[in-house]
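Exercise (ungraded).
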Amino acid sequence: MSDWLEATFAQQRPRAIAALTRVFRDIDTAEEAFADACLKALTVWPKDGAPRDPLAWLLTTARNAGLDHVRKSQRRAAILSRHTEEFQRAPTETPDPDEMRDDVLRLLFVCCHPELDQRDQIAIALRVVAGLSVDEIASGFLVKPKTMEQRITRAKKKIASNPVAFETPSPAERGARLGEVSLMVYLMFNEGWSTSAGPKQMKLTLCEEAIRLARLLVALFPAMGEQSALLALLLLQHARRRARIDADGKLVALDDQDRDLWDRSDIAEATGLLQKAQRIGHRGVYIIQAAIAAAHARAASSEDADWTLIESHYAALHALQPTPVVKLNQIAAQAKLHGPQYALKAMEVVAEDLTTYRWYHAMRGGLLQETGDHKAAIAAFETVMTLAPTGPERVVIADKIAISQKELRGV
Amino acid sequence: MIYAITIYGEAGVFEALPKDRQDEVMSGHGALQTALKDRGEFVSIKLMPPTSAVMVEPATSEGTAPLITDGPFAETKENFLGFYAADFKDLDEALEYAKMISSPVARLEVRPVAWAGGVISSE
């Protein structure tokens, strides 16, 4: 029985913690109060039946539990007197959707504190909003639990020293917060995606939690195309999780993946979300990236993909995000359309900016291999090896070097 | 009589369950679908999460087009998740089949269908 309840608690947690943080003006008190309410639910719900509105039940119970904590604590008594009005509001009523939306956004935004580095922002969001244990987060980041514990404690202190105002944000402020939070969710997914390869079992927790948070953003902001697109983008990428690693734990490039292993229900949901996002009209970075991922998802094989469309999407993305890495991706699409020679020439534009970017050299090696220049290909792959590739990447590159060496011996 | 077995629940709770619990729920659906297939035509629909929905609101005045909005806005309560429909002997039989997919994440409603067209027809 408790599994079902735990799933409900997990689902309610972001909204509950957000509303309780507004009430108590303190994340730790909110977390304690929510934990107390869940504990009570574990004994009451199986006996009396689950309430029709679990969030309202948990909020009321948590508010009372939190109030008890606060009353008992001298330090917090001062807070209580400042916010009596909040405490005296009708306790059974769920906050109205607009207020709830700003509460959850604020809580997520607090995690994106500018003084925290990116990984700590992600870690704190996983702890506070998603409710993951320190052990779970540590294993997602491939660090020791003790290290993660210290990082989270430090991050919480920084957050507490520089609180975010509780007033309703202006539309511009809300938009800016949503942008920051969306980026954090996107990076959370990428963090999971990049640590999830290897001989050990894939670490997908971060990816799954990022998708859950992206879902939450869509639920809170259904009219925002970029958030629907972000969810679509993550789902499209996540759909490939079973295909990107082979039986030996080796990374499989997109071109070589067995597309029958792609998760069709993820792709279908993403397609629906992307169509909704595109209807809204605005073309932001997530919509374009999701459109690219969708073009891959539609194709039965890499050769079947509409590379003209993909190339034009990258051109549009480059107009919004004129970075050398986006340019490199555009050139990768051009390679499919115009061949490796064309792409190698085009790559010269970004060569200087990307001298230490290992994917630049890996792509160059692959293209040189296609043209038959195996000597130069080996040199490019050897450069990749000097740029700190991850274990799984190292294996892939070593394979490619071996192929070129074999070709050279054969000639 | 055609009965609809409609499923309500909170979107996202199923996804938050551990894998073996999800499999438990899905095996109920598998069993129901096999059982329904054995006795004739049926319809089964699982909707995507409500966040993927677009609303078509009635026109506000005569001569104007219906209003398309990107709602539904932040709902935390129960959502309509999907349904089955099939021709059953009677209510008791429909209830027997509905029990196959009962789980703590879903509230089921068994309701007679007034009219149906398509694969299963009330004509």
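Further reading is listed at the end of the chapter. For now, observe: The interface with chain B takes residues 1, 3-4, 6-8, 10-12, 15, 50, 52-55, 94, 97, 100-101, 212, 215, 218-220, 222-223, 228, 231, 268-269, 272-273, 276, 279-280 of chain A (CB under 8 Å). Chain A is about 75% helix and 0% strand.
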